[in-house]
Amino acid sequence: MTYSSRRWAFRAGGPSSDEQASPATTHTGIEARPRLRPSSPTKSALRSAPVPFLHRTPRGTTANRALKRLHDSNQLTAEKLLRLSQSDLAALIRSCGYHNQKARKLQLLAGQWAYASSLRRRPEAMRERLLTVWGIGPETADSILLYAFGHPYFVVDAYARRVFSRVGMEEGGGSYETVQQLVHQELGQEEGVLGELHALLVSLGKSFCKTRPLCGGCTLQRVCQTGRKLDSR
Questions:
Q1: Which of 9, 61, 81, 108 is most buried, judged by most C-beta within 10 A?
Q2: How many Å from the N-terminal Cα to the C-terminal Cα in the chain?
């Protein structure tokens, strides 16, 4: 199915049975492959919750290593995380950077997990509860809601802001709520669509739209204000 709006048109998910199995593209040429999909709400949703904490570092590979150690140690239940000493938990996630601070955040989240999870059918109430936890802001809360529980909240991270601002969208520099509302209005609120868009923006930000942009070869260059300026020099 193709999703479109005044500004964006892109394809979420794989092909249906009567379609060719080739990746669709946006109107700007970005391939919309299912790189990242929100999970269904389950009792194991806590396994997805540490991801936004651990990946708040430019060292993605080391964050992945920390997450794997958590999984391999079989400590990803709220009860087990709370039984660990903060220093032992910090040692498990040391590779991700700021491990002492992140260990504290994870344990505070674990302490609220049972109550927050009981609100899974009331996403606004769950979001409000998550935001009361030290270390959890809108971006982290929405990551948990989207990827752990499948609620349709677009995650406004640094990659999204950077891409939106550079292509010329004035809203890209607005508040978190302004950018999120824009995306929800333009594309609706389906978790698969919002998760896919987020994944595409992260991929673009890591590959081309870096702090110092690598516009050559970027599929957005011909419609991007920044890309056109750099190309004309």
A1: 81
A2: 39
In this prediction, residue 57 has a pLDDT band, given cuts at 50, 70 and 90, of low
Cβ atoms of residues 209 and 198 within 8 Å: no
Quote the pLDDT of residue 19.
Answer: 32
Residue 95: which CATH number? 1.10.340.30
Closest among 179, 166, 193, 205 to 1, alpha carbons compared: 193
Q: Identify the CATH number of the domain in which residue 166 sits.
A: 1.10.1670
Q: Domain span at residue 60? A: 45-148
Name the amino acid, one letter, at 166.
R
Counted residue by residue, the chain has a size of 233
CB-based contact 26:218 (threshold 8 Å): no
- Those residues whose C-beta lies under 8 Å from the C-beta of residue 122, and which sit 6 or more positions away, are none
Evaluate whether residue 186 is within a structural domain: yes
**Per-residue b/e over 157-178, b at no fewer than 16 CB within 10 Å?**
bebbbbbbbbbebeebebeeee
Given a cut of 70, whether residue 34 has pLDDT beyond it is: no
Residue corresponding to tokens 């394809």: 11
Last residue of a domain, one of 112, 129, 148: 148
Helix (H, G, I), strand (E, B) or coil at 4: strand
Alpha carbons 102 and 56: distance in angstroms, whole number: 10
Decide: 120 and 143 in contact? Cβ < 8 Å.
Answer: no
Q: Is residue 231 a part of any domain in this protein?
A: no
